[in-house]
Amino acid sequence: MGRRRPPLAVLPVVVAFIQLVGSGFAARHQGLELPGGAVVLLLAGPALLLLRRRAPGPAVAAITLVDGAYLLAGYPWGPVLLSLVLGLVFSVLGRARWWGWASVAVLAAGLAVAGLVPGVAPGGAFGGASGPGQAAAQVRWLALPAWFAVILLVAELARSRRDRGVEQRRIAREQATHRRDEERLVLARDIHDVVAHSLSMINVQSSVALHLGRRNPDPEALLEALATIKEGSASALAEVREVLAVLRQDAPRVPSQRLDALDELIDRVRSAGLDVRYAAPVQPWPDWVGERTENVLFRAVQESLTNVVRHAGARTVDIELTLDATGARLRVRDDGTGRGGAPDGNGLRRMRERVAARGGTVSLADLDPGTAVSVTVPAREDP
Predict the structure, then answer these.
(1) Contact status, residue 48 vs residue 83, Cβ threshold 8 Å
(2) Is the peptide bond before 46 cis (omega within 30 degrees of 0)?
(3) What is the mean pLDDT of residues 297-310?
(4) Phi first, then psi: what are they for 199, rounded to 5°?
(5) CA gap 155, 149 in Å, rounded
(6) Where are the alpha helices (DSSP H) in 30-117?
(7) How far is CA 199 from the centre of its chain?
(8) What is the pLDDT of residues 310-357, one digit of tens each?
(9) What is the pLDDT of residues 185-241, one digit of tens each?
């Protein structure tokens, strides 16, 4: 919720009070009276501040004319210029800066004429004296435009700082939105990989259990297949819960799978009757291999095995994973029926997106027989 601004009339009322009371005290101190025309002009300047939000440019121009008339009329000196100072500031902050600068130029010209042409503005605001005293007072009044220029410059700096703050907040909001979008994309990929792989394994094991129930009188084999289904579904449920837990405010987003979990993944695939040959990369791994890179490689293996189980009709799969100082190289090769020119599915597209986010590439090659999936991830520290 944005911060509420005070009512529009509060500032003009305060400024009018200061100008009237201050000018009244100043007039008595100078042995002068505050005539009715002066009171009207002292109220007119603050009243024009009511336009500071809707029309800051015309407002400062009108205030300049009012205050200029007060000075040229020779009325007693006091805080009459407070409304003009505020009008200049609001003109800059309200993106009407040229109105402010033009008003100061017009005021400077008027004061110059009044100070240099004899008889234009006698006494009053110009000192009420004659001789050297009046000349010194006129010099001080002619310096007023310089002070107003300083006020405008300060207002320009304030506006620039405010604009930078607004831009920084806008960039921060865009970055936060971008991070949330990336987060949702990562979650969508993880959920797809987990569900697709787990359902594929359950489907294969269910087919085995159904075949054994119909053809094989041995209950031990049937019970083993059902136990495998139970273990696979429990593992999938736990992993889905882990991925979905990130949607809670108190759950930090971290990659859910590391390379150490590949052995468990491969064991589940082997339970479906697929001969998977895999040797884990030699420890210690390079320092650049972090949890995000491990998660990308794990998901690439998972998606490749899911496609083999669902589509390839293969008997054996070879998984080669190399980690060194230059990067990571993964190759998953099967002896199945091959792709047959089929386009990439959602799983492969998400694999490419995930690997590309780490600066890597994915390529597929048709073998005789089978298919090879190659993934390359360059060495890069995880953020």
Answers:
(1) yes
(2) no
(3) 85
(4) -65, -35
(5) 10
(6) 36-48, 56-72, 82-93, 97-116
(7) 38
(8) 777 788 999 999 999 899 999 999 988 877 767 777 778 888 888 988
(9) 766 666 666 666 666 667 666 766 666 666 666 677 667 777 777 776 776 676 666
CB 376 within 8 A of CB 342: no
Structure tokens at 156: 């320009």
Q: Which residues contact 166 (CB under 8 A, 6 or more apart)?
A: none
Q: What is the pLDDT of residues 19-71, one digit of tens each?
A: 888 888 888 887 778 888 888 998 988 899 898 888 988 999 999 898 888 88
What are the tokens at 312? Answer: 């390839």
DSSP state of 74: T
Reduced to 3 states, what is the DSSP secondary structure of residue 5? coil
- For 49, the 3-state DSSP assignment is helix
User: Helices 56-72 & 82-93, crossing angle to 10 degrees?
Assistant: 160
Q: Which residue has the tokens 């979990």?
A: 261
Retrieve residue 259's tokens.
């390379």
CATH for 172-378? 3.30.565.10
- Cβ contacts of 241 within 8 Å, gap of 6 or more: none
Residue in 88, 23, 28 with CA at minimum distance from that of residue 57: 88
